[in-house]
Amino acid sequence: MFRKISGCIIVLTCLTMSMCGYRQKGIGASDTIYVFSDEETRQIVGSAIDTTFSFGYRSPEFIKFFKTVWKPLDSFPEVTRFKNLIVIADLNKTGLGMKIAKGILPPEKYHLAEQDSIFIYAIDDVWVDGQMVVVIAGKDLKRMNQNILEQKGWLYEKFNQKFEQTEKADIYSKGEQKKMSRTLCEKYQWTLRIQHDYVIIRESNLRKFVWIGRGYPYRWLSVSWENGIKTEWLTANGLFEKRQQIGKYYQDTETDKRFLGTYFTQFGEWNALRMSGLWYRTKEAKGGPFVTYAFYDSKTDRTFVIDIVLFDPGANSSILLRQVEIIAETFTTKMTDTYYDDVSEYGK
Asked: Which domains can be identified in the chain, with CATH numbers?
């Protein structure tokens, strides 16, 4: 059995080094990370890995953006086509973990791991396209655990960036509505890349409000704006009040104060205030997660609020919510022909 597994590793390593031949796409859910280690190693570093991927949202139950699935090392050859893999190798043991680390890492990187100089290595598209493989290897497992905690932001972003890259390609794989994007540009001097099956639900130049969306599971995205700097929108209380106003346009929805979270983050080219939480309707038992961004655009001297709403009861809707965020992040006030030339046409 061990010889058979070792053979698999050698074959897979050859595939890694080869640049020829057909490259398959990664399989499996984009929000699932498979983690491979022996039980003893997991006892030491398991909590650090799970903490790294503990970010999420309420729907109303807490749902993580990434779920970690722990597996024994000997099952690794069976899942090398999956999108997200972490291999944790104790280099004190001449077992399968060491063989995997040696097979994937360049010799100089493996040597550094043996010296406990660098523990974590991220490699794109090792066996299939759209894949992120992380090797965590070393001899001092306590130092390894500490290093994971120190680098958890970096480690999380490696998988998050790959998620956004592969999901964005999937979102626009069937084309997009360039005509609608052009229309928004001509009317309002802003635009975004719109997935092929979204429609404009409501728009009002007087209210400075545009609402687009698609059918069940319901995904809504709206853009609101005002001239000049609306400083109140860039505060937690002010953005809450603005979102309450937007909720009236969404057929009387409310924002639940109990689960609000706000912080400043990067949204496209802007430093934005991000608010997230739950929306609900008072007249019927409906609700779900929302995400709102507020920022000032100095180029056009306008303050924008971009609001994202999801209604998908009883489902783990993490991927859907994040897909709408990816669409929202294509928002731009730069009006150039290149913006349209770079995207595929869908419906004229």
From this structure: 2-170 (no CATH), 174-341 (3.40.1000.10)
Using CA atoms, how far residue 222 sits from 293, 294, 327, in Å, is 11, 12, 11
Mapping DSSP to helix (H, G, I), strand (E, B) and coil, where does residue 180 land? helix
Long-range Cβ pairs for the range 6-11 (8 Å, 24+):
6/96, 6/99, 8/77, 9/77, 9/96, 9/99, 9/100, 9/103, 10/103
- DSSP-derived letter for residue 27 is B
Length of the chain: 348
Q: What is the pLDDT of residues 55-89, one digit of tens each?
A: 998 877 888 999 999 999 999 988 999 999 999 99
214-238, pLDDT tens digit by residue?
A: 988 899 999 999 999 999 999 999 9
Closest CA to 220 of 308, 313, 330, 317: 308
Global pTM? 0.86
